[in-house]
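Weekly modeling sync, notes
Attendees: S.R. (lead), two postdocs, one rotation student

Agenda item 3: backlog of single-chain predictions. S.R. asked that every request posted to the team notebook include the full sequence so nobody has to chase files. The rotation student volunteered to paste the first one in as an example of the format we agreed on. Action items at the bottom.

Example entry:
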Amino acid sequence: MNRLDVTEKIITGKVAKGLKWSDVAAKVGLSKEWVTAACLGQMTLDAKQADVLAGIFDLTDEEKKWLMVVPYKGSLPTAVPTDPLIYRFYELVSVYGTTFKELIHEEFGDGIMSAIDFKMDMDREKDPNGDRVRIVMSGKYLAYKTY
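Predicted structure, as returned to the notebook:
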């Protein structure tokens, strides 16, 4: 057994029970974005959070322990994603990455946006020309230090 096996069991349970990630997140008491990432094997849960997921997805004690192990982060099977939706994010960074970098450096200086001290919100935005996906990402600015 490994973390991927537990992730597959969670996904199977979600489908079988007809759950939405927002339903699961409400029971855990955290954002749907973070809980979804955790259920997909990208975040580490504490014992209380793991207990909640174990109850929802009928996980064994061994499976629950895997939820509390620090994962190997990065879930894409290839360097260039082949899934069309994920590829669009790759495309977005390919096209706008230098713009993000330039504007962040202009506004903040030489540094990065943290993916550790980070939050994200994803919503559906109604639009008469077709609904839009609205994603807001907020990461702490971390300046490079001189030493």
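Discussion: group reviewed the output briefly. The chain has six helices and two strands.
Action items: rotation student to repeat for the remaining queue; S.R. to check formatting next week.
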